[in-house]
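ok so for the tutorial part 2 we go from a plain amino acid sequence to predicted structure tokens. step 1 is just haveing the sequence, like this:
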Amino acid sequence: MLLSVVIPAFNEESYLPETLSNLQNAIGMCRCSVEVIVADNGSSDGTAQIARSFGATVAHEPVHNIARVRNSGASAARGDVLLFLDADTIVPRHLLDRIAEAMGDPACMGGRPDVVHTARSGLLKGYLCAWRWLGMRLGMAQGAGQFCRKSAFGALNGYDESYFMGEDVEFYRRLQKLCRSSGGHLKFLDDVTVLPSPRRFDHTPIWRTLIWTNPLVIAPLRKTRSAWREWYVKPPR
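step 2 — the prediction. this is what the tokens look like for a chain of 237 residues:
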């Protein structure tokens, strides 16, 4: 098995080194072969150079659309299994090995780890914890840690590039449907926790986060580019 890790990145020279360093530790513990692909979304900093210094393959995608960037990285992947991480996400050492173990079952078409978002604000901590609980109950999955067979990814035509927000949740929903129709299943790695950076929560007014992370707001605006322009600018440090 070859596992391809796809990391979309836009001006991530501040966070990418820690992400790739932790990922290298996980590669050292994995029972299968691993390749790392950084999908550089037209960065103007040292993102691509840092990726290459860690031995990653760099795929270039100039269009600022996160679904398209994920798809470009997947197109460059040679692996049987795709794992999607964010450029500011810290992973535990056993992540890749647990994915390899899960995907050793031919009926397993993909899955996700436990994604824990944090924030300095006590109110946001409670809010994020509530959404994490609800997401687990509903079987939802965000882009930081989704994995699937490349054959399944191809059958679904990847992420929907008409989406500017929520493309990860929508993709996982379609993956669930594919499993139900084909007799496969998805694996929730409840013993594996990945930690995305809280930077956007810590640099955004609380009221704005509460509004713009609400699915009732995201749903009608997810295909409207102008509604999400702040998500496609240089990320906060």
